[in-house]
Structure formats: structure tokens, C-alpha cells
Amino acid sequence: MKCPPFSYHRATSVDDAVAALAAAGGEGKILAGGQSLVPVLALRLARPDVIVDVDRVPGLDGLELRDGVLHAGALVRHLALAGQALHPLAAEAARWIGHTAIRSRGTLAGSLAHADPAAELPAVLRACDGAVHVAGPSGTRRIGADDLFVGALQSALEDTEMITGVELPVPDAWGFAEFARRHGDFAVVSVAAARFGDRLRVVVGGVAGVPHLVDAGDLATVDGEISEDRVAILAAAAADDVDPADDLHGSARYRRALTEQMTARALEQLTTTVREPA
Amino acid sequence: MTPTDEHAPASGTPVRRKEDARLLTGRGRFVSDLALPRMRHVAFVRSPVAHGRITGVDTAGALEVEGVSAVFTGEHPAIAPVALRAQSGLPGYVETDQPPLARGKVRFAGEAVAAVVADDRYLAEDGAEAVVVDYEPLTPTVCAWAEPEHPVHEEAPDNVLLSRTFRAGDVDAALDGAAVVVDRELTTNRHGGNPIECRAGVARYEAADRKLTFWSGTQVPWIVRTQLAELLDLPEGNIRVIAPDVGGGFGVKAVLYPEDVALCLMAMAMPGTPLKWVEDRVEHLLAATHARDHRYVLRAGFAADGELLAVKADVWCNTGAYSVYPWTAGIEPLMAGGLLTGPYKLTDYECTVRGVATNTSPSGPYRGVARPSTVFAMEALMDSGARALGLDPIALRRRNLILPADIPYKMPSRLVDDSGAYEACLDKAVATFDLDRWRAEQSRRRTEGGRPIGIGVGVYNELTGLGRAASAGPRMAFRTGHDACTVRINPDGAVTVFSGVTSQGQGLETTMAQVVADALGVDYGDVEVRYGDTDESLWGFGAFSSRQAVISGGAAHLAGEHVRGRALALAAALKEAPVEDLDLRGGEVYMAGQEKPIISLAEVARVAYLQSDRLPEGFEPGLEGTKFYDPIRGAFAAGAQIAALEFDPATGEIGILDWVCVEDAGRIVHPVIVDGQIAGSIAQGIGGAMYEHLVYDEDGNLSTGTLLDYLMPTAGEIPELRIGHVSTPGKNPTGVRGVGEGGTLAPNAVVAGALADALGVEVDDLPVTPARVWELVNP
Q1: Does A146 touch chain B (CB under 8 A)?
Q2: pLDDT confidence of A217, banded at 50, 70, 90?
Q3: How many CB atoms are closer than 10 A to CB A275?
Q4: DSSP states of B489-545 as a string?
Q5: How far is Cα B411 from Cα A166, in angstroms, rounded to an integer?
Q6: Is residue B636 classed exposed, middle or buried when 0-12, 13-18 and 19+ CB atoms within 10 A define those classes?
Q7: Is the pLDDT of residue B505 over 70?
Q8: CA distance linking residue B100 with residue B135, whole number of Å
Q9: Residues in domain FAD-binding PCMH-type (chain A) (predicted)?
């Protein structure tokens, strides 16, 4: 469990990092908090030629609310996200990530770029229909949450791109529920639910290659209160809509049942977290 | 203050642990901390296939990697002549060879095939990647109760390395006469010890004087020395084994591994170049010993009043690819057959146990050895019997427990139980737990709603401190009944103890100091303990079978008493006082009836070492003594655990609401250490019951290769444990009973029993995970 050889570049700015990635010709990898990359390196599952360390690039740790959207820098730590009050859904979800040591190192953009379908923040990004800002050799672009996650541990980022910032719209009401084997583990199943006006977005983690946006059809349009019956119907619809696989921690059948339970819990929470109109 | 108060015994009090100053401040001295001049690092090339013939090994590419200085394979002349061969005199036992590095074929995924020596571990792993091994795959056998297609070892075509039937009375007749007969088929989950520090070794060979020094994170340095001498053909006195601070063992490190032997052989082939191997977690999960992969097919008969009349059992233990060295494939099956009936009286018993080779990592000793599985099996029979008879499960257990009046009780396996404290433990556990309160809460939830609660019980005996008559291990070439201890009073009156113990964090340094301080009559603070170095101490078999407090503690006490006698005799001669009137307390010699000491131990020691002109006639210089101790039999330790768990039928989520354990540790030397042992072993038991599972796929690949998938409980998963004690002193010099393992024995039974009690579903396969709970409730 020792990483293979690589060369190391400590980036001083986004431009510097992007240039280093470009110079690596697709064989570069960004290191920030290191909570996903370092274990992958130790297991020799990744063999980048160049590690581009962006951990000390200034100006990437901001948290700012503008027009109902939380603009977060790429290097915002899970601990900072968990501790802020501007986006309560992101705060709640961040508290479920790992343990203190992991939360104090791991970064928002790192988690999104790693694109683990059982991780908390990709589910939140998708539930909030957020987006990432990306810098690359040909300039910057914006990738919406629905397009960012391509498959398990695969994002739409090019090898020469880095996330510089994240947009997280603040929902009018929200809920988050997770079932994990142990405190701090990746979810067996997690559910992030967000209501924007009369639109409900429910995203299930741990049941597919990407955080799964539940297609609830007309059920996803709500006005005012969500009744207990409606919660049950939505939960059943979510369970119907997912297509999980068997694995060591449970059968597909079990994950479907958990999807229903976690969706219900998230929606119950959502009914109690209505944001006061500004 | 009277002198007695001033010098209260160290035993029985929570004195500050001697090892903690270094262990708690990050100044421990572990094998991985060792840095020697010219030292190089080793990485093993491990087989990716579970079963296959090796058709070629190409090391040329590895030798071209920067920093790589040597590559060894199983065919290397330094390695090829040597094989580990676990030996036992048991009839029908099939002996097999385990090469230090695979030769001819590989028998499990993870087996070491080659070793690369390089300037550091990174480069060694680069080199290991460049070794090319060709395999011709053979069909692997993963399950111990499946027909093999290609046997693991040619010597055992059916893969059975050992089989034995325990028989007492007439079990079939007893079953015929039973009011109810219950059948259970159970499997327990393969898991392992997983100490924080994985395996580690540094081997250095000096060719000029043929001396080998092996620093090893072992629990058994003297066994390692003896076995290495045999395997390496060196005089035993030329080998020094040093176990420095060791970060946990749990039995996993009570084994001499092929990697250890390979490391020493390679060091001998590279004289003057110390070689270091520090195992990482991936290797540990893959290739350190596993345990508890068992199947039990059980039938029990009960009389209408709940008396247990008969137990008939068929047991399969998966021993993995090799008979673990030096304990043999018998370690789990023989323990399973010998202890299955646990704390219950029984005359009619038949149990056939088998150790079956498979293409998986070898099984070895792990805290509790087989008994977490057998207690699960026995308590499952008790719970099923109680349900069939409509009796209270605790009352049914009480009906059958071995009681003080039955002691000594010859178990149907002919082991002799000297405890009988089971009912005392169970009574106290039930009272501490407040069973009535939990039963009331259970019915309240049944009527008013809320997650169902179940109450689980496990009663068990821990076989501790085994002497020569009941020694651990199946008819091996050595008997592990004794240890030695040397107590030396230094010229300044302070005491150095050379103990045969090893410690992996369980505080033996402290415990031995307490015992010696009290036996000798000096302050705890004046005693220093050396251990784990075969060149310093005389002899100790090491840490396993909950033996060290009993056996090494006994030797420490006897050595302390002996040296106390010598010191008092010298003091008596110097002060011209009758020796029978003298007492040694707190390092001072007192005369009966006098408040002030007549001479200090320091002055007595000064005479003994430095002032021979003052030595009375007939006294030799020096003040030291060595004693061995062997308890001959052993000290059974009783225990009972009872817990309330709640289950969410919708998610399978399991919550532990209360967990009580009462054990009989005999006379307690250090209360906090004892409670720590019990708490730690319950935590490991809960790990086995609810989380830890090493899973192989059909091809023999380990699916749980990292701690992402192999789940161990953290502090967040372990409840506040309520620990109580009863004390019936053992028949040994310090009156202790071992406590290292007992806690692991009950959690399987407790968790499974609680699930059945809560939801009325019998769980036959462990671990009890949320997914399994949900599947049982939603079939």
C-alpha cells in the first residue's frame, strides 16, 4: 500500500494548476484534501504521472450567499460546510461525512469530482440542481449537476480541468436521511430531498452509478403542505424508481426497501424545515 | 499511619500503568520504528489466484527497478529446502508442508510467491509489481463443507486434515428418551483479529558468529526462537527474538508465519543487511490468519422439566490453505468439540469435528478460539429448547448449569471444570441488568408501539491458564503449561524483573510489577519489568489461552517470594535477628514488635553485591532468583452476558440499549486492566456478531479486501458496557483467573438470541447485520 512513483507540483493559482494539468497531458491528478485520492494511490488503483496539489491555492475557500444560491469555493472543507447556516441541507449532509479528521481535510470539490454515488455531497448537489464551475486549458465552463455525474467514480470533468467553485441553490425546504452500517461510513442508501417552490427533487445515493434523481412525475409537483399520505406515496414511488444491485452490504430488495424508508424520513424532515420567505 | 497502610499491596488497586508513559505519548517502540544501518525493505509478491500451478516466475524486470537489490522465490536455494510443518500426534492428522514462499502451486489468493528487497518499501512494491508469475488455474475450494474438485493438498484428497469424535454416554438412547428434540444448522462468519499494528519483522544475520536477531511483533518469542532454530538449522542460543512494544495481537501474532521464516532466510542469505517487513492492512486482511468459518449441525434433547439430556453435533471448521504453524489445523475443531457443552452439565454427548483445508487464508488462533461459535451454537440450542418446551430461557439455562457442588466437574469431553461460578455470574448479571424492567419495557412496546426489543443471554466458560495436563494445542511437540520469571534485586535495592510474558497492550508490564512488588515486599514504583526478549528473560510461552496472568503471574509471585526469603535470611544474619521475626515491607526490613525498620533492602543488597567483607558465612553474593510455575490443570473462568437490543423491522437497524457482563476473574490484580480486557473482548465479540465478515467469492478472491468493506466496530458502535465481577480465587499462587478472551464468547449468542426474542425469527447464519435482520423479517 505505497503509492507508485509520480512527480509533484504545488500549484500557486488556478491558472498554474490548469497549466500543470495541461502539461501532464491528461496524466495529471488534482490533490486537495486527499481523502479519496490518497487511498486510491496507496492501492495503486490510480497512476498519475503528476500530482497537482491545489490545497494551498488562495481564494478557493469562500462561502457566499447571492440571490438564493450558495457560492462555495472548491476548497471548502466538509467541516466548514457542516458549520455554516446559509445552506442547511448541505450542512446536514456534510455532518454525515466520515469522521472529524476526514471532514477537516476533505473538500467539497474533491467529493464532487470523485463522484462516489454513495457520497453525501453529490446527492445534495443534484437535489439542489446545483452546478460546478470548471477551469481548463480552453477557459472556464459551468456543468450542471444533472450532467456532472456520468458513472460510478466518473464525472464529466476532462483530465485537464479542475473545479473552482460550486453553486448550491438554497431550497425552500429540505430533508436528508441516510442509512450506513457504521457512524461515518458511506451510505448504504441516502436520500437528499429539496423543494424549490412547487418542485420537489428527491435524489437517492447508493443505488446506482450516479446519485439517482427520482422521476416521480406529477407527484414531484407539490403545493404547500406535504401530507403523510403524500410522503408514503412519494417514498413508494422512489423505491419503484430505483434499480439497485446486490452487494456485500445488502440485496437489491433490501436497498429498495431502504430507499422507501429513507425517502420517507427525508420528506418528513422536509415538511418541518420550511424556510421563512426572505 | 501504620507501616501496613503505608505499604498497602499493589495488587487489587488501579496503579498507574508502567507502559503508559511511552504508549500514550507516542513514544512506544514498535518494530516499524526500528531503523538499523544498511537496513533494506521487503515487499511480497502475492498470488492473485486462489488455486493454481506456478508455471513460471520471471524476476528479471524486478531486478531492473531502481533500488531493488534482490528477489527471492520459492525455488531460491536459500528458501527451497525449508518448509513449515505443523506437527501433532493425533491419530489421523494429515501433516502437510507450508513453504515460506509458494513452490509448485499456490493454495490461496494472497499467498506469498516471491519477495523483493529494496532500499525502501515504495521501491520494493515497484519491484514486486515487475515480477511476472504465470499460473495454470485449478478449481478452488472455498467452502469447507463442499466437495473438493482439486484437493488443496495431495496428502488429503478429501481436504480433511483432521477429524475427531468426542463421545460420552449413549447419545442416541438419550435422544430417544427426550421430551423434545431440537435441531439447528448454524454457520459462523469468517473474521480475524485485525490488531492496529499489522504483522512486522526485522531480521539481521551476522555471518561471522552465525547469529540471527529477529525483531518481531510476536506474541510468542520463545516459541518463535525454538521453531526458527529447527527450521534454519541454527543453535537455539544463536537466535535472539525480540518482541518490543506490540500494537495488539489477539492470537493473530501467536503464529510463526511463512513470511517471518522467509524474512529470516533472506537475511541469512544477505548477511549484514537487516531486512524489514511491515505488513500493510491489505496484506493483513488477505494473508494473516482468519478464524471462525464454521458450520454446526446440531441436535439436542431435553426432558420436559428442561434438563439437557443429549447433544449430538457435526462440526466443520474451515482451516484454510495450511495447517497453521505450529498449532495445526486442530486448533479450532478440537476446541469446538472440547468446549461445545460449555457451562452445562451433560452426560450423553457425541460431537464429530473436522478441520478442512480450503483455498482460503489459513485459520489460526483468534481471541476466544472457536468458542464464540460454540457458545452461539450451544445457546441457540438452549433458546430453541426453551421455545419448544415453553420455558423461560434463563430458567432453562439455570436448570443445567454446573454448580459449585459439582466441582470438580468432568465435562463430557473429559476436561475438568474447576469453576462452578456460572450461576453466580448469571444471577448478578440478571440483577444488574434489571431483567424485570426490560421485560416490562418489551411488553410496553409490544402493546403501545415502538421498535421491538429483544433480550439475549450468553453463559460461558473461558479455559484459562492451561497447565501441562490440559495444555493448549493438540498433542504437539511442546506443552505450554509453564513460564519462568527472574527477580533480581539490584545493588541499589531497586528491583528488575525478567519475565516470560509478552504484552500487546494488555498491561502485563504493570501486572507483573504488582505481583512481584507484593510477593517481595517492595513498592510498586521500585519494580521494573523486562519482557519480550529471549536474551534477557529465561522462558515464557507467550500470550494465548488467557494464560499469562495465571502462569507468568504465578512464576512472578514464586520468584518474588523466593528472593524475599533470601533477602530476609541475609538481613537476619547481618542484624543477628531470628529470620522468622522479620518482615519485608516497602523495601524495609522490620522486626516484629518494632515500629522502625532495622535495615533497608538497599543496604542488604549493597552487602550482597558490593561488600563481600560483610557477607556472613554461608551466603553467596548476589540477590536474585528464578522460578518456573505450571498450574498443571488450569483455571476455568465463568462469565455471563445479557443485553437488550432493539430492532427496526423496516430497515433492519439494530440498536444496543444495554449490555451487562459479569465475569469471575478470581482475585483481581489490576481492576482497570481487567475491565479493559473484558470491555475490549466484548467489543471484538460484537464486531464478530454484527460487523466483521471476511467474504470470499466462488473463485476464492477475497471480496472484503480493505477496511471499506471489512467493517470493524468503532467507539461509535460499542455501547456503554456495564461490567460486574464475582470472585472465586483460582488455585494458583495469585488466585487469578484469565480474562483475556471471555468477553468475545457471548456476543454472537446474545445478539442472535435478542433478535429471536424480539421478532421471533431464528438466525442461523452470522453476522447479524441490518440486511440480514430485514431479510429474516421480510422473507
Answers
A1: no
A2: confident
A3: 13
A4: E-TTS-EEEEES---SSS-HHHHHHHHHHHHHT--GGGEEEE-SBTTTSS----S-T
A5: 69
A6: buried
A7: yes
A8: 18
A9: 1-173
Q: Out of B129, B693, B716, whose CB is closest to A182?
A: B716
> Per residue in B698-743, pLDDT tens?
999 999 999 999 999 999 999 999 999 999 999 999 999 999 999 9
Contact A44 B129 (CB under 8 A): yes
Where residue B3 falls among pLDDT bands split at 50, 70, 90?
Answer: very low
The mean pLDDT value of chain A amounts to 95
Between chain A and chain B, how many beta carbons pairs sit less than 8 Å apart?
65
End-to-end CA distance of chain B: 71
Q: What residues of chain A lie within 8 A of the CB of B276, using their CB?
A: none
Q: CA geometry: angle at A108 spanning A28 and A194, to 5°? A: 135
- Strand order in B582-585's β-sheet? B582-585, B588-591, B599-600
Q: Is the pLDDT of residue B694 over 60?
A: yes
On whether the CB atoms of residues B735 and B428 are closer than 8 A, the answer is no
- pLDDT of A272 above 90: no
Name every residue whose Cβ is closer than 8 Å to that of residue B643 and which is 6 or more positions away in sequence. B433, B455, B456, B656, B657, B658, B659, B660, B750, B751, B754
In the block, cell 453463559 appears at B459
Domains and CATH numbers, chain B: 3-28+482-629 (3.30.365.10), 34-138+196-248+253-287 (3.90.1170.50), 370-466+635-777 (3.30.365.10)
Q: Grid coordinates representing A80?
A: 466548514
**Mean pLDDT calculated for residue range B328-356:** 97
What is the enclosing helix (H) or strand (E) of A92? helix A88-95
Tell me if chain B has a CB within 8 Å of the CB of A44: yes
Give the 3-state DSSP-derived string for B619-654, with helices as H, strands as E and coil as C: CCCCCEEEEEECCCCCEEEEEEEEEEEEECCCCCCE
How does B106-144 read in b/e, with b if 16+ C-beta sit within 10 Å?
Answer: bbbbbbbbbbbbbeebbbbbbbbbbbebebeebebbbbb
Nearest CA-CA distance, residue A53 and chain B, Å: 21
Q: Do A182 and B714 touch (CB under 8 A)?
A: yes
Determine the average pLDDT of the residues in B257-285. Answer: 98
Q: Do A5 and B709 touch (CB under 8 A)?
A: no
| Res A278: pLDDT | 47
The residue among B404, B398, B753, B130 whose CA lies nearest residue A4 is: B130
- Which residues of A are less than 8 Å from B129 in CB distance? 4, 44
B652 close to A (CB below 8 A): yes
**Using a CB-CB distance cutoff of 8 angstroms, which residues of chain A are in contact with residue B693?**
248
pLDDT digits (tens, 9 = 90+) for B101-114: 999 999 999 999 99
Domains annotated for chain A, with CATH where assigned, are 7-53 (3.30.43.10), 63-169 (3.30.465.10), 173-270 (3.30.390.50)
Place of cell 538449522: B233
Total residues belonging to chain B: 779
Residue B58 burial by Cβ neighbours in a 10 Å radius (0-12, 13-18, 19+): middle
Residue A125 in this model has a pLDDT that exceeds 60: yes
User: What percentage of residues in chain B have a pLDDT greater than 70?
Assistant: 99
CB contact at 8 A, B763 and B690: no
| Whole-number pLDDT of residue A275 | 61
| Residue B626 to residue B372: CA distance in whole angstroms | 37
Question: Which chain B residue's Cα is nearest to A184?
Answer: B716
Report the side by side order of strands in the sheet with A7-10: A7-10, A50-53, A28-31
All cell numbers assigned to B677: 480486557
Q: Does A95 touch chain B (CB under 8 A)?
A: no
C-alpha–C-alpha distance, residues A157 and A167, integer Å: 16
pLDDT of B764: 97
Q: How many CA atoms within 13 Å lie on the side-chain side of A101? A: 2
CB B651 to CB A2 under 8 A?
no
